[in-house]
Structure formats: C-alpha cells, structure tokens
Write a structure and sequence with these properties.
151 residues; mainly alpha; 9 helices; globular
C-alpha cells in the first residue's frame, strides 16, 4: 500500500489529474439542484441569463471594469466557440481555477518544496473557503433581516 502511494506521487500527470478532479468537484457542488449557486440559481440547469447579467455587471462597475481579463476571456470564448454566456462563464472560470491549482503546485516545487508538500499546498488552495464556495451568493445579515421584517 505504501509502495502504491509513493508510485502515485511520482506519477507525472498526478498533480494535473488531481487539479482536474478538484475543479470538477467544486463545479459539482455548485451545480447540485438544492444549492442556490450563481451558476444554477437553485435549479438543475445553468442560469445563462443571470450569468450574462453578471458579465455585463462586471463591464460597468468600476472595480471590475479596471480588471477586464476574465470578462474578455469569457466574451472571447463565447464568440469563438459560439456558446451561451453561462457555458463560457463556467468554462473560463473553472479552467482558471484548475490552472491556479497547478501553478500553486509548480510554484511550490520552484520554492524547493517536495512533491508531497506541493500537492498539499494545492489541496489547501482548492479546499479554502473562498475557492470551494466561490460562486455562491454572498450572505448579508442585513438582507436576511430585511426579508423577514418589513423594511
């Protein structure tokens, strides 16, 4: 068993496969039908209209408009692949999540960490709260208070 785990750690594509699995797991969490995610809005299908409104929102609001990389990538993907906004949004954002995890692993190796520590660093990234639950609506106590009281 120990020999199997060592050989798995030394398998060259293992960090990439692990990043892909983690990325798909995070997508799966967001697409569960009983989850009120920005991706599906408590539904079983991708919410193309809402995601298009988020793309438009990011073009208009100053803090996001000054950082147009993601919006540009989404719109480029949408025009090249001829897909709906929701598909392009999910493809680009989750591709960037997977790439970020792999880059954390590679950076760990550059900084002289072992492969095992590099994988641990990548897993810490993927299991951090802001990554694991990135596309859930932000919770605001005032929103909840106003919805229950007469505001």
């Amino acid at each position: 068993m120990v020999q199997l785990s060592r050989s798995l750690l030394l398998w060259r594509p293992f960090p990439y496969v692990l990043a892909l699995i983690c990325t798909l797991f995070i997508l799966g969490i967001h697409m569960l039908p009983n989850m009120d995610s920005m991706l599906n809005e408590n539904n079983t299908r991708i919410s193309h209209v809402f995601l298009q409104s988020q793309i438009d929102y990011h073009k208009e609001i100053a803090p996001f408009a000054r950082r147009p990389l993601t919006t540009l990538l989404i719109e480029t993907t949408q025009s090249i692949l001829k897909v709906k906004a929701g598909y392009a949004f999910i493809f680009v954002n989750f591709l960037l999540f997977g790439l970020s995890g792999v880059l954390i692993y590679r950076l760990s190796l550059i900084l002289k960490a072992t492969k095992k520590k590099g994988l641990i660093n990548m897993m810490v990234f993927f299991t951090s709260f802001s990554i694991l639950f990135a596309f859930f609506h932000p919770y605001s106590p005032m929103t909840n208070l106003c919805s229950t009281a007469s505001c």
